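Posting for a labmate who doesn't have an account.
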Amino acid sequence: MAVSMFTPAQRESGEKISSVKLESVLSTSLYFKKRNKFKMEKTLKTNEINLYAFRNGLMKMALFISLLSSLLFIIIYIYMELFFVVGLVLLFGGLFSVTYVFLFLKKEFLAKIWLLSVFILDITFICFLFSVDSGFQFYFFIASIIAPVVLDMQKRKNRIIAYGYLGISLLFFLFFHNRQYQGIVHLPLSWLRIFENITLLTVALSLFIIFTSFIRVLAGSEQRFYKASITDPLTGVLNRGGFFAKLQDEWIRSQRYNLEFSLLLFDLDFFKSLNDRYGHQAGDKSLCRFADLVSSCLRESDVFGRIGGEEFMILMVNTGTASALVKADSIRKNISSEVFYWESQPVSFTVSVGVSSFLKSDKTLDEVYSRADKALYKAKTEGRNRVASH
């Protein structure tokens, strides 16, 4: 039988303290998870908005084409039977109004399915009215392309529906186009040729709009994915790969035009002790706070990135050693005077900075970086919270 070393009152007190600490840790962990998730998804959110606008734009275009084609045969047929035309207007007007009812009820998926169905129904009805020489059957190409784009193809159900619309559209096109259907309404051949030309131009223009819009969305997505790949998810500044890519470009430019640049290598002092004392969440907040403070005092031409752990680096273009030292010391003073609170406890930290500049005798970029690293080591061995150059 196990014997407890604590009294019931002590155990109850310990459980309360443990629960409070656990709740605090969980809440802070959740805060930083949300912060990191927001930073990671921030660059992708615009892409989702663009795709949403693109799909809704296609829905409006499909609605416009359907109404335009409906009005077309109504205007032509109006001189024959007025009551028939009024009935068609009420029928298609009612069908299309249901789309806006679904949108008003925030049933976007049902609105898309309904609109695509009415669109195909409208084209089919027009093809039955007029001869194949009118060219209205080519509208089925628009319906076959709009369905996969409007629906979210990442879901299996939507893929099946989109492929179903694609198959139906192509089958209807082949049905009307191959059997040389003559239609119910007989118009002069010259009129039919005009309608055919208008239809082909409308289809070509619609396909052009669809593909160019989709290409723009893909181009924007590629840029945003690239930006996400070179951004540090915690601090929001450049990560190691993104920073050194910029540094490599500046190295080539400096060699070609004999320009100077400087590197400022930062390392947070006693960062491991800060993590051990306050927790890793406090350490993450320190990194974010440091990145925000440094970013707020940089020039537009400066490049700032996190190159690993608690190490950060600034690339200052067109800047010599003297100006770089002044800037580094100014940042160091601002950091040393900064205090933030973590769980009601004041937290402060300092940084050591190593500065190096590009020399004409440098053969590789590693020589500049190595001098900055040696300067940082010198600043740390001399007592930390200071700036050194090499």
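Reply:
Got it, the structure tokens are right above this. The CA atoms of residues 274 and 283 lie 6 Å apart.
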